[in-house]
Write a structure and sequence with these properties.
Blueprint (H helix, E strand, L loop, with lengths): L1 E6 L15 E5 L4 E4 L6 H8 L9 E3 L5 H4 L2 H7 L4 E5 L7 E3 L5 E2 L13 E4 L2 E4 L3 E4 L15 E5 L2 E4 L7 E4 L3 E5 L7 H11 L3 E7 L15 H14 L4 E4 L5 H11 L3 E3 L5 E3 L1
Parallel strand pairs: 3-4, 4-5, 5-8, 14-15, 15-16, 16-17
Antiparallel strand pairs: 1-2, 1-18, 2-3, 6-7, 6-11, 9-10, 10-13, 11-12, 13-14
Helix pairs in contact: 5-6
Length: 276
């Protein structure tokens, strides 16, 4: 399994573009996938620089309905005429908003009716290629990320708190499983326990944002102690799992987790590549 980051907030090589968005390319001997498509066409421009042919992608899996994960879809449709597009059925006919720093819409206007033949809407869970499990986390006994408190969704003519029924977790593999969290809005421990509940096999690698924002502009989220406690639980319960994060995981949050997880934790960036 080859995994390459196409879009992220960070890059370490000159020439790669960055944005507040996330897109990851995943390839096996049998299929090629995109996990999210970032906020714009940046993922495609970076893929071109890496000689990754997006016209040959078989599946797009969208983790949730926020623009920094689905905004690049129109650009992808110009490049690729065959890929199945997999996303939560709860995304349709709904808008999303954030009140962090300023109140703004964070979803995209898109006519999904034009994609009927290629669209696969997942209500709760689905299986692809006999080894790609896609589901909304069912275990929610651990706290959500505190920054979720500034996120909302439309409900008729009202705005209500976003409960992230539209967030899908993508798990690839059987014996050694790769877990893509998107932004991890359902909380990392809830996600991992849901992965365990959905199937057997070692969780070899967890990759994506963990939605642990750094305190900034008078806004406060998880304390250092809370992040350290999370790190200790991850190390105790998943001692052989690799965690690779970026995007919505803040630098201070990463540093606190790193102090506990050590080499189990790495930071991704545009151009980061992994083989499993």
């Amino acid at each position: 399994m080859r995994v390459v980051v196409l879009a992220d907030n960070r890059a370490v090589e000159a020439g790669f573009g960055t944005e507040h968005g996330l897109s990851v390319y995943l390839e096996t001997e049998s299929y090629k996938c995109l996990l999210d498509v970032g906020a714009s066409d940046l993922f495609a421009r970076n893929a071109n620089m890496m000689d990754i042919d997006l016209s040959d992608v078989d599946y797009i899996f969208i983790s949730h309905g926020h623009a920094d994960h689905i905004g690049g879809l129109p650009a992808f449709l110009v490049i690729n005429q065959k890929a199945k597009i997999v996303l939560s059925s709860h995304i349709f006919n709904r808008d999303y908003y954030s009140s962090r720093n300023s109140f703004r819409k964070i979803s995209v206007d898109f006519d999904f009716n034009a994609l009927k033949e290629r669209l696969i809407a997942v209500d709760e869970k689905a299986l692809f290629e006999e080894e790609i499990a896609v589901f909304n986390p069912t275990i929610r006994k651990h706290p959500y990320p505190k920054a979720n408190g500034m996120l909302f969704k439309s409900h008729g003519d009202e705005l209500i708190d976003d409960d992230f029924d539209h967030e899908l977790i993508i798990v690839v593999g059987k014996e050694k499983r790769f877990v893509f969290t998107g932004c991890g809005h359902n909380g990392l421990l809830n996600i991992l326990e849901s992965v365990i509940a959905e199937g057997s096999g070692e969780i070899a690698c967890v990759m994506g944002g963990f939605h642990l924002l750094d305190n900034k502009n008078g806004l406060e989220y998880e304390t250092a102690e809370e992040i350290v406690e999370l790190g200790e639980k991850l190390k105790s319960r998943f001692p052989s799992t690799g965690f690779i994060t970026g995007h919505c995981t803040g630098d201070n949050a990463f540093s606190h987790l790193k102090s506990i997880l050590g080499e189990q934790l790495k930071q991704f960036y545009v151009g980061y590549e992994l083989s499993i």
